[in-house]
Amino acid sequence: MRIGVLTGGGDCPGLNAVIRAIVRKAESRFGDEVIGFMDAWDGVMEQRTMTLDTAAVRGILPRGGTILGTRRGGPFDTADGVERVRKSFEDNRLDALIVIGGNGSLTVGSLLHEQYGLPIIGVPKTIDNDVVGTDATFGFQTAVQIATDAIDRLHTTAESHDRVMVVEVMGRDAGWIALQAGIAGGATAILVPEVPFDIDELSAVIAHRHDRGRYASVVVVAEGALPKAGTLAIPDVAVNQYGHHSPRNIAQLIAPEITKRTGYESRVVQLGHVQRGGTPTSYDRVLSTRFGLAAVDAVHDSAFGQMVVLRCGEIARESMSATRGKIKTINLDLFADVSATFFG
């Protein structure tokens, strides 16, 4: 068979490990040819490819990013995009295309399969861990570890200077990174998109903590966290063509409000793209490898329209359509339990 591979959306630790596993298994076990499309769906439409063989993927397992490059957007953004994708399948003699991406890329893949019959298999990725249908996505544990390491370091600075550190992590629609890194790092409070916060209640928690003699606080906030209606004014932000709003810099809004209410100096640390750069953790390398191996099996089983997923520790398959218009949100029971036990 002749298999195409693309990586779409934001970069993510573990992408290269998936590519490597696909190539090694397709080549050594089935004698397949594998080609990579450069820069996601743009590369498919423009037929920009590279040969993917054992030599091409040697040494990429621990590397972050993606050797194929990645972009957002897809064929439905232009009038002739779908036709160009179909022509690329024909010209490149593709028997299948493996799409490694998040909600957006998997949605495109599912529509191309359902509406146009293109043979596509999905591999879910995102550091946000918000893809419906899988227990975990690779890249998430790496991002959590990076955020946890940062929180650990910030505790000592907060304690030395009697400060409140407001740490902003990624998570536009779901607070998985904030929740797990906040728990692991012993945060004073965690703010997530799923649960609107009250700035007065947050400030009271911090003041109570300091009144008890704890002269430092670390507040972990997901970038998509929002205040309860009427409790804190926030600026309107633009929404792009993919439905994503521009960053609100929510930590920059929260920190001075905490200082105003408590009198304690507050500082902001925005981790930003550091969370998804660099080498993947061992967990993400293993999960990425498992996904890549399973994707090749799915191709040879003609399980098109499906994605490989993690379910109760085992690799399974789920329809790519499960991701359309949906976000996997955090466990609210866990959030409530942690909040009641540790915050305040």
Plain-language structure description:
The protein is α/β, with parallel strands linked by helices and 344 residues long. It folds into two domains: 2-139 and 280-323, Rossmann fold; 143-277, Rossmann fold. Helices cover 40% and strands 17% of the residues. It contains eleven helices and eleven strands. It has helices spanning 15-30, 40-46, 54-57, 81-91, 103-116, 140-161, 176-184, 199-211, 250-262, 282-300, 332-342, and strands at residues 2-7, 33-37, 49-52, 96-101, 120-124, 164-169, 189-191, 217-222, 266-270, 306-311, 314-319. A five-stranded mixed β-sheet has the order 3-2-1-4-5, sandwiched between helices. It has a four-stranded parallel β-sheet with strand order 7-8-6-9, sandwiched between helices. Helix 5 (103-116) links the parallel strand 4 and strand 5 (120-124). Helix 2 (40-46) packs across helix 4 and helix 6 (140-161) crosses helix 7 (176-184). The radius of gyration is 22 Å and the shape is elongated.
Overview in brief:
By secondary structure, this protein is an alpha/beta fold.
Secondary-structure blueprint of this entry?
Elements: E1 2-7, H1 15-30, E2 33-37, H2 40-46, E3 49-52, H3 54-57, H4 81-91, E4 96-101, H5 103-116, E5 120-124, H6 140-161, E6 164-169, H7 176-184, E7 189-191, H8 199-211, E8 217-222, H9 250-262, E9 266-270, H10 282-300, E10 306-311, E11 314-319, H11 332-342
Parallel strand pairs: 1-2, 1-4, 4-5, 6-8, 6-9, 7-8
Antiparallel strand pairs: 2-3, 10-11
